[in-house]
Amino acid sequence: DNGSVHGSSRYRYDRRDFISFKLRYKSFVMANNAAEITRRRWEEKGTVAEGRENYLKHICPEWLRKYVGYG
């Protein structure tokens, strides 16, 4: 293990894929055309991608190590 982190966050609406964040590309990917407005707003805001990146790179791995340690 080289310590690198890979991952994505997926968002669903009405039990269907809506939009996801790909850590590798640091961008949002639409599952359908309805997600275009959301993608545009999140990218304009800028902080949503930063928050997802921080969660996937730091918070999630920390929690995984913690809870796996509980056995």
UniProtKB/TrEMBL annotation:
Cellular localisation: Membrane
MHC class I-like antigen recognition-like domain residues: 2-71
Keyword list, A-Z: Disulfide bond, Glycoprotein, Immunity, Membrane, MHC I, Signal, Transmembrane, Transmembrane helix
Highest taxon in the source lineage: Eukaryota
Gene Ontology process terms (BP): antigen processing and presentation of peptide antigen via MHC class I; immune response
Membrane protein topology class: Single-pass type I membrane protein
One Gene Ontology cellular component annotation held by this UniProt entry: external side of plasma membrane
Pfam family, any one: MHC_I
Protein name (database record): MHC class I antigen
Gene expressing this chain: Pama-U
